[in-house]
Amino acid sequence: MKHVEILDAKTKDKLCFLDKVEPNATIGEIKSMFHKSHPQFYPARQSIRLDPKGKSLKDEDVLQHLPVGTTATFYFRDLGAQISWVTVFLTEYTGPLVIYLLFYFRVPFIYAPKYDFTTSKHWVVHLACMCHSFHYVKRLLETLFVHRFSHGTMPLRNIFKNCSYYWGFAAWMAYYINHPLYTPPSEFTNIQFILVTLEFFNFCQIGNLSIHIALRNLRPPGSKTRKIPYPTKNPFTWIFVLVSCPNYTYELGSWLGFTLMTQCLPVAFFTLVGFIQMTVWAKGKHRSYLKEFRDYPPLRSPILPFVL
Amino acid sequence: MASGEEDGAVDEKENNNKKKTKSAIVTAWLTFYNIAMTAGWLVLAMAMARFYIQKGTHKGLYRSIARTIKFFQTFALVEVGHCAIGIVRTSVIVTGVQVCSRIFLVWFITNSIRQIQNEESVILFLVVWTLTEITRYSYYTFKLLHHLPYFVKWARYNLFIILYPLGVIGELLTIYAALPVVRRTGMFSMRLPNKYNVSFDYYYCLIIVMLSYIPLFPQLYFHMLRQRRRVLHGEVIVEKDD
């Protein structure tokens, strides 16, 4: 039997003393016990660590496998109010879906009153609405049925930051694409061109979905295991040979297709910002793959084959 | 074995020497930079004073120093680089915001909009900037030379209390004066329809810039006040953890 004392990481005050803790108890169980004596700190907002300035211990870590004596001393840090990833994703993706449609249907107070509830005379505008809406419906369905999240929650303030980004950009793009004075791609870039961009967009959407499904299948339900992703029978996953995070590659492709389809500078800007953020994430993921797996395929790049 | 230990000691000494040379070069550059900037802003101060004494009016004063202030204020971008590579221990964001707001005012307002160059508010912020920069750069220079007179330290951490708000007033009044001109000429703006399917209204952009002073100015001001308490009174301030 072990004893566990939990101190505040900043003030070093003794917050909690748990006696008679099973040696095979997990950090997750200890967090539940701490929650009982401090109801305001639900487990998701607890960061338990061996050192006040060290890394957080994982919920799966077992007490007796940690470098502690008969009485384990842990330091607690409040991570702040938390919100579940699923909630954040659902909120941040529903916004663009609804907002774009408000502009598409030219709801009052956006454009001049004579345009209220009119529709654009350019067929590419209808196509763009379908693509944009399809994209976000796909994301919502993936959040509900495909993705398996490693972390349950994130800090509450992230939802404001993320929603501002998605909703703000959606409004900015939708305003111009659905504007009465919108200029569709010119005579040079004719119907063939628009159809090619549409095909490219669809190709990348299917690719992105294929990768999400392949990643989900790596991980049994309810687990948090991490494995190296490999190409499967689905040709869209063969890109794993060259890239660590092909979901981001396909996402970039989709938005490039959408940019060329609409020829709208705000869309190009959104694509660029998204690309920069996804590259940062891809590089981080690639680095952690390399650190965790010594036999990681050397030919792979983080997001763009051979280049980035 | 003994020679192995010696090699190790020699390596460490070489490393230490390399570090010392690097830090000597850095100090030399920073000292030169701060002396040059102090001199530059002193030249500006004297040019402004001489113009006013000779001509008795502030009309035409901006034009007479336009090239000099464009040069020295733009060169201050280098300071953002200093923070980014870590040779100066200040936040990149704080420095970036301050330098960018200056550059915006010089290049995108005063330099581009001739009609407001003779406004009194322009003189106000020019005088404030000059006094602030001379104090700031000479403070850094003396600090690098390890010979800081108390009155320079006092000036650096006390004058801003009045100069900062006065500067903000000068800047805001200048932007406000520029609004009718911008609206009338439609400068820097782009309207629909166009092939990029985007529009930009410099007039509303300026209004947003003016509004952004509301959240930004207090943050910068209180940052300076906290620095002042720390430097002048040695108070230890516990910063919020991230």
UniProtKB/TrEMBL annotation, chain A:
Its EC number is 1.3.1.93. Pathway: Lipid metabolism; fatty acid biosynthesis. It is a multi-pass membrane protein. Keywords: Endoplasmic reticulum, Fatty acid biosynthesis, Fatty acid metabolism, Lipid biosynthesis, Lipid metabolism, Membrane, NADP, Oxidoreductase, Transmembrane, Transmembrane helix. Its main location: endoplasmic reticulum. Belongs to the steroid 5-alpha reductase family. GO terms for cellular component: endoplasmic reticulum membrane. This is very-long-chain enoyl-CoA reductase. Pfam families: Steroid_dh, TECR_N. It comes from Neogobius melanostomus (round goby). Residues 3-78 form the TECR-like N-terminal domain. Coiled coil: none annotated. PANTHER family: 3-OXO-5-ALPHA-STEROID 4-DEHYDROGENASE, VERY-LONG-CHAIN ENOYL-COA REDUCTASE. The chain crosses the membrane at residues 83-103, 162-179, 191-215, 236-258, 264-282. GO terms for biological process: very long-chain fatty acid biosynthetic process. PROSITE patterns: S5A_REDUCTASE. It is found in: Endoplasmic reticulum membrane. Residues 153-308 form the 3-oxo-5-alpha-steroid 4-dehydrogenase C-terminal domain. One of its GO terms (molecular function) is very-long-chain enoyl-CoA reductase activity.
TrEMBL record, chain B:
It holds the Pfam family PTPLA. Keywords: Endoplasmic reticulum, Fatty acid biosynthesis, Fatty acid metabolism, Lipid biosynthesis, Lipid metabolism, Lyase, Membrane, Transmembrane, Transmembrane helix. Pathway: Lipid metabolism; fatty acid biosynthesis. It comes from the Eukaryota. One of its GO terms (molecular function) is very-long-chain (3R)-3-hydroxyacyl-CoA dehydratase activity. One of its GO terms (biological process) is very long-chain fatty acid biosynthetic process. The keyword Transmembrane helix applies. It is a multi-pass membrane protein. Its main location: endoplasmic reticulum. It catalyses: (3R)-hydroxyhexadecanoyl-CoA = (2E)-hexadecenoyl-CoA + H2O; a very-long-chain (3R)-3-hydroxyacyl-CoA = a very-long-chain (2E)-enoyl-CoA + H2O. The chain crosses the membrane at residues 32-53, 93-110, 122-139, 159-182, 202-222. The keyword Transmembrane helix applies. Its EC number is 4.2.1.134. It is an enzyme of class 4 (lyase). It is found in: Endoplasmic reticulum membrane; Membrane. GO terms for cellular component: endoplasmic reticulum membrane. Catalyzes the third of the four reactions of the long-chain fatty acids elongation cycle. This endoplasmic reticulum-bound enzymatic process, allows the addition of two carbons to the chain of long- and very long-chain fatty acids/VLCFAs per cycle. This enzyme catalyzes the dehydration of the 3-hydroxyacyl-CoA intermediate into trans-2,3-enoyl-CoA, within each cycle of fatty acid elongation. Thereby, it participates to the production of VLCFAs of different chain lengths that are involved in multiple biological processes as precursors of membrane lipids and lipid mediators. Belongs to the very long-chain fatty acids dehydratase HACD family. This is Very-long-chain (3R)-3-hydroxyacyl-CoA dehydratase. It comes from Neogobius melanostomus (round goby). The lineage of its organism: Eukaryota, Metazoa, Chordata, Craniata, Vertebrata.
